[in-house]
From TrEMBL:
Name of the protein this chain belongs to: Crp/Fnr family transcriptional regulator
One Pfam match: cNMP_binding
InterPro entries: cNMP-bd_dom (IPR000595), cNMP-bd_dom_sf (IPR018490), RmlC-like_jellyroll (IPR014710)
Lineage, broadest ranks: Bacteria, Pseudomonadati, Bacteroidota, Sphingobacteriia, Sphingobacteriales
Domain Cyclic nucleotide-binding: 26-110
Amino acid sequence: MFEHLKTKFPELTDHWERYAHVYKREEVPARTILLREGEVSKRSFFIETGCLRAWINNQGKDTTFQFFFEHEVISSAESFRKNIPSMCTIETVEPSVINVLTKKDYELIMADLKTQPELLSNMLDITFERQLHYMREFLSFIRDTPQERYLNLLREKPQIVQRVPQHYIASYLGITTVHLSRIKNKILKEKR
């Protein structure tokens, strides 16, 4: 399960192996809700295979704000850490294999890690990477047109375009599926 993390942080291999047993492996079908908006999160998910999305209810329509793929962790962090209602829903997009960490096991790991500053430092780096990603996404929505956001998606995250249904991509870009089709057609014509 932790092969990707061992490659990324080889100095922490012993730590990953020490905590691997607390993760519970689950095979989950597509379109399975793992956490509903408004519920308090008691679990965090490490994706072994598959794709998950985080979305919010926006006046009766779901609006996707993030996709997660293999070797990524997803949770409603504020809910998981602070025991407050989740601001988002977490759902599988395709059949997925996930490794689940419960809040109770997370707290045991955190208590153990207080004596291991190098691991905490690496975990903070991961958190800051995620924060930087959210800042870029936020600024893109302010600065870029829907077509520019789609072109960025093609360039920076082609796996989304290859693996995610069009209606989720349109939701992620903040447009309708009809508008997304027009953008794709316009890009094709410009390439000819």
